[in-house]
Amino acid sequence: MENLAQNCVTSKDYLTAYFKSNAFSRFGVEIKKYIWFKQARFLNPMKKEYYLRRFVEEEISKFINKGEVNIPFLEFSLVTGCNFECKSCEIPLQAFSQNRIQITAEQFKTQFDKICNSVSSIRHLVLTLPNR
User: Which of the four pLDDT bands, split at 50, 70 and 90, describes residue 85?
Assistant: First the structure.
């Protein structure tokens, strides 16, 4: 992992967190796919640590051998004229409301396309829309 961090010009801690986050996300997605859609194979929750270890190894291999970069989780909250201050707000970004930006739909599409074109996959994508 140390050599990989040096080659990628990033810290070992960051890479470790990246691979673990991807493995954890992948485990969750596989469980959901099996429960909701019967599309994935059954993963025994009692063997979670085994699967996570295996998924981390696979993530590292794909990153090194194929150059794959996967985003484990990406969330966008799309709102219009919202100040994130309603007490019944379902959008979990109230604490980060100072980080909001105002862009057009076309600008959003352009930025999202840039993200999609620079990664191999986004394992879990959430678009939150206001409930009005």
Answer: low
User: Radius of gyration over alpha carbons of the chain, in Å?
Assistant: 18
Could you tell me the residue ranges of all domains in the chain? 2-68, 73-128
Give the C-alpha separation, 24 to 54, whole Å. 11
Query: Tokens 């493995």, residue?
Result: 23
Pairing of strands 70-71, 74-77: unpaired
Q: How many C-beta neighbours within 10 Å does residue 121 have?
A: 14
**Diameter of the chain measured on Cα atoms:** 51
Q: Contact, 53 vs 5, CB < 8 A?
A: no
Q: pLDDT tens, 56-74? A: 888 888 887 888 888 877 8
CB within 8 A of 77, min separation 6: which ones? 91, 92, 93, 128
